[in-house]
Specification:
The complex is a heterodimer of chains A (about 110) and B (about 120). Chain A is an all-beta fold and about 110 residues long. Chain A contains no helices and 11 strands. In chain A, strands 2, 4, 5, 9, 10 and 11 form a 6-stranded mixed β-sheet that branches. Chain A has a 5-stranded antiparallel β-sheet with strand order 1-3-8-7-6, with no helix packed on it. The radius of gyration of chain B is 13 Å and the shape is globular. In chain B, strands 2, 4, 5, 6, 9, 10 and 11 form a 7-stranded mixed β-sheet that branches. In chain B, strands 1-3-8-7 form a 4-stranded antiparallel β-sheet, with no helix packed on it. The chains are: A mainly beta (about 110), B mainly beta (about 120).
Chain lengths: ~110, ~120
């Protein structure tokens, strides 16, 4: 059983379209993180959301933490081919430094 | 700074062979981690270390051993490789693992194929 469920698992869109990726759990997290991973490389942290209801923006990327701190979303506006990659949400349910990752969302943005 | 480095980048093993994966970080981080990544399963924690000389089990520790003799190095060993251990292995480090906002820095990965 995956503690963090991401949807969709695969997304193929045209350049300029908008998209949203979801990360859901039945457990409460003190914070959730979003990482992006490009082929052949390790994940790189994009953002950490800490407060329920928090919204953070990173250029065209908007991250939201659910009010109950059980879910998060990543919205990309006007996607570009450079956004292509694997997006992973992660959280530490026990606050011991051990991250649990969602299964990932593979995004392909076609020019 | 090189960040987190991993050696080797790619390896092919036969069932039953042993090998050691090396992870090194030059950021003076206390916490180090070994993950494996399989299609459709995200990253799963194998073992981790909260400081020099310490190790602890993660989510999927069976078939692996680790050692942290020096603060900057974290070794992952496979004593008798099995085809189920075919995967991409990532090492990561963080300065202090218990803060919710802590960033984990990942290496480039080691691709392992067990025949």
């Amino acid at each position: 059983t995956q503690l963090l469920e991401q949807s969709p698992q695969f997304l193929s869109i045209q350049e300029g379209e908008n998209l949203t990726v979801y990360c859901n759990s039945s457990s409460v997290f003190s914070s959730l993180q979003w990482y992006r991973q490009e082929p052949g490389e390790g994940p790189v942290l994009l953002v950490t959301v800490v407060t329920g209801g928090e919204v953070k923006k990173l250029k065209r990327l908007t991250f939201q933490f659910g009010d109950a701190r059980k879910d998060s979303s990543l919205h990309i506006t006007a996607a570009q081919p450079g956004d292509t990659g694997l997006y992973l949400c992660a959280g530490d349910p026990s606050n011991t430094g051990k991250l649990i990752f969602g299964q990932g969302t593979t995004l392909q943005v076609k020019p | 700074n090189a960040g987190v480095t991993q050696t080797p980048k790619f390896r092919v093993l036969k069932t039953g062979q042993s090998m050691t994966l090396l992870c090194a970080q030059d950021m003076n981080h206390e916490y180090m981690y070994w993950y494996r990544q399989d299609p459709g399963m995200g990253l799963r924690l194998i073992h981790y270390s909260v400081g020099e000389g310490t190790t602890a089990k993660g989510e999927v520790p069976d078939g692996y051993n680790v050692s942290r003799l020096k603060k900057q190095n974290f070794l992952l060993g496979l004593e008798s490789a099995a085809p189920s251990q075919t995967s991409v292995y990532f090492c990561a480090s963080s300065y202090w693992g218990r803060r919710p906002q802590e960033t984990q820095y990942f290496g480039p990965g080691t691709r392992l194929l067990v025949l």
